[in-house]
Amino acid sequence: MLRPSETHRVFSPAMKLMVLRRHPVFGGLPLEHIERLSSYASTRAYPRGAMIFTKDGPGTGLFAVCSGIVRIAVPSPDGRNAVFGLIEDGEIFGEIALLDGQPRTADATAMTDCELMLIDRRDFVDLLESQPEIALKLLELLCARLRKTTQQIEDVLFLDLPGRLAKQLLHLIGGAEGSGGDRKVSMTQRELGEMIGMSRESTNKQLREWEERDWVRIERGGITVLAPEALAAIGIPNIE
């Protein structure tokens, strides 16, 4: 049954095949296996703000993002969120529950209008058994996400609030080097604060200070970075 906020999005077999062939996890498979995977896949469209799945919900399948951005977060009792990542075009999510069959470990929400491809767990497990290289790809993905989560924990423990905010802004615009011209982060201050463990009020206060220095410009629907080199000079190591 479809959620009230989701709709069927009909992809032709050729379009589903194209999405899978360009995907970093699935693209290296023999064509016959990609065709098999494509026959299993269904597609969904979610509007901005729609809940895709919730923490502790059933882990019934793997999602691939065809277009849009999905936020992965864990809610707290007081209504705030700890954001673990943004999943963009060409990436997959939901792989933990897919592999172990246990409930979801986080919420997934459409940050923008999204088109997603869904592959049911029972179909995917059959393919994993015949194609162990997919399991290796998924392990690489899980390791990369574990490293990212470890880095987030280190940032919260060892970086002050300005350092965490500057690092996150630079990450979202692709880094300080070669970033000539304005760079806009299309995200609310609350969403930005949730990514680094800051309240909206603290995030706003810091951004206002930087706006007075002409380092950023606060706009409706986002923040434009005007001086990425100034943010990088705050003293943050290993910014990517």
Summary, kept brief:
The longest helix is centred in the middle third of the chain and has 27 residues.
What does this molecule look like?
With 240 residues, this protein is α+β, with helices and mostly antiparallel strands. It has 2 domains: 7-157, Jelly Rolls; 160-232, Arc Repressor Mutant, subunit A. The chain has 9 helices and 12 strands. The chain has helices spanning 13-21, 31-40, 95-100, 121-130, 132-158, 161-172, 189-196, 200-212, 228-232, and strands at residues 7-8, 42-46, 51-53, 61-67, 70-75, 81-87, 92-93, 107-110, 114-120, 183-185, 216-219, 222-225. A 5-stranded antiparallel sheet has the order 1-2-9-4-7. A 4-stranded antiparallel sheet has the order 3-8-5-6. Strands 10-12-11 form a 3-stranded antiparallel sheet. The longest helix has 27 residues, at 132-158.
Q: List the uncertain runs.
A: none
- Classify the fold: give the CATH topology of the largest domain: Jelly Rolls
Category by helix and strand content: alpha+beta
Q: Please give the count of helices.
A: 9
Spatial sequence of strands, sheet with the most strands: 1-2-9-4-7
Going by CATH, what is the homologous superfamily of the largest domain? Jelly Rolls
Q: Using only CA atoms, what is the Rg?
A: 19 Å
Detail the topology: elements first, then pairings.
Layout: E1 7-8, H1 13-21, H2 31-40, E2 42-46, E3 51-53, E4 61-67, E5 70-75, E6 81-87, E7 92-93, H3 95-100, E8 107-110, E9 114-120, H4 121-130, H5 132-158, H6 161-172, E10 183-185, H7 189-196, H8 200-212, E11 216-219, E12 222-225, H9 228-232
Antiparallel strand pairs: 1-2, 2-9, 3-8, 4-7, 4-9, 5-6, 5-8, 10-12, 11-12
Helix pairs in contact: 1-2, 4-5, 6-7, 7-8
